Amino acid sequence: MQLYHMFMDSYGTCQQTSFFHVPEEGYLVHAKGSGQIYQTLRCSLRFRTQVDKQLCVKFNSFRIDDCSVHFKVFQENQPVNFGRQPSEDCLYRHYGCQDSPQTVCSTDSYLTLQLHKERIDAQGYSLQLTVEPKAIQNEIIMSLWFIVGVIVAVVVVIVVLAVVIVICCRKDRHHGRVFKQKKNKPRSGGQGRLLEAGPEPSAPPLDPGLEMHQHIVTSYGQFPNEPPPPYEPKPEPV
């Protein structure tokens, strides 16, 4: 399998204003500090592949002895402004001195590699890496399906609980219904009529004042109301 070689110490390569389309064979990227004057402080290489694939960077060798040298991996927002260096907001990975990266893969079909030197004459670094396309990892797809499955399960549980609550409420209403009491048939004859009509009301009590008046009239009724006639002596017998 033939690999396409690329050098991050080349001024012309670092000034590329478009994407490098990564073939199935991939790219073999080299960088080695030589302190030459034509090198740049920042060298950014932008790669892309098919939309249904991701890009993976395999570090075949990685050595940075000078801590003023940094190697960064970006996932830039689209569309990319080729007139500027990648924004730190899109930083995906950052490697420096004493790091030993192995492999890193993007989450989409775009990836940017940058070699950043704080001094133009920095020499204490040497790296070689392979950039190649790869089918999207099954872990990502499984994660998406897992999230969808959890959402569906939650919805199903909510629906089942709602149905159970409705059924229970209907059962409670059925058992709590009040039935009308059946009326007894009236008895025949006079007893039945008496029960239907009920007892007759008694006479109202007399007024206390009226009772006293009747008592007075009854007690003194033998005396007339008019005064007696004048006294006349009896005539003596002749």
TrEMBL record:
Residues 178-238 are annotated as: Disordered. The chain crosses the membrane at residues 144-169. Keywords: Membrane, Transmembrane, Transmembrane helix. It comes from the Eukaryota. This is Uncharacterized protein LOC111107043. The lineage of its organism: Eukaryota, Metazoa, Spiralia, Lophotrochozoa, Mollusca.
